[in-house]
């Protein structure tokens, strides 16, 4: 990996979901002393190669996020942009705000507050080698396929299955062209790996040694906050 100061990375935090299963906007929920979104923001700000940070959020809560950002002491540029009707459109809005001279783009779910800065570095190292890399964990549970009545229909081998996480980091050229393609073709994707695969580029998965689930239900907030702060 190059020296951190030699790499220019734009980071996009996607935080514009509806939080239907939570019953309230999960990114502003408290996890320890900080909100969920603050943990994600701080993890990326601790990586010196992040030159600008773009947070894509529901326009109805943009002012609440702006209050949080205004209290963060950092020299890193932080921009707040409105999300779209889908994740794909929200990421596209974020891509419109990246530094055009950046080398890589890191895209992260704002509702994954347990991301460790060391994992961000590990994913970037592999993105430098392969052009595209993503954080993930091998599936360890037994997996079953069920019908609409929740009746098991078959077992699925977990040997080659990975649970996808974020960040997902790509060279600016790859992610820009991949997104241009799926937008032009009207293809829906649930993550950026899917967009890059459709574009025909391989993606390296980087095993995450630290648990980094997405906050989905209220009980998730009982998990211990990240411990890498000073």
Describe the structure in brief:
The protein is α/β, with parallel strands linked by helices. It has helices at residues 36-45, 62-70, 87-95, 117-130, 172-185, 192-199; strands spanning 9-15, 30-31, 34-35, 50-57, 77-82, 104-109, 132-138, 143-146, 152-156, 162-171, 204-207.
Layout of strands and helices, then pairs:
Blueprint lengths: L8 E7 L14 E2 L2 E2 H10 L4 E8 L4 H9 L6 E6 L4 H9 L8 E6 L7 H14 L1 E7 L4 E4 L5 E5 L5 E10 H14 L6 H8 L4 E4 L23
Parallel strand pairs: 1-4, 1-6, 4-5, 7-11
Antiparallel strand pairs: 2-3, 6-10, 7-10, 8-9
Helix pairs in contact: 5-6
Would you give an account of this structure?
- Strands 5-4-1-6-10-7-11 form a 7-stranded mixed beta sheet, sandwiched between helices. Strands 2-3 form a two-stranded antiparallel ribbon.
- It is α/β, with parallel strands linked by helices and 230 residues long.
- It is globular, with a radius of gyration of 17 Å.
- It starts with 8 loop residues before the first strand and ends in a 23-residue tail after the last strand.
- Helices cover 28% and strands 27% of the residues.
- The model has no long low-confidence stretch (mean pLDDT 92).
- It is built from 6 helices and 11 strands.
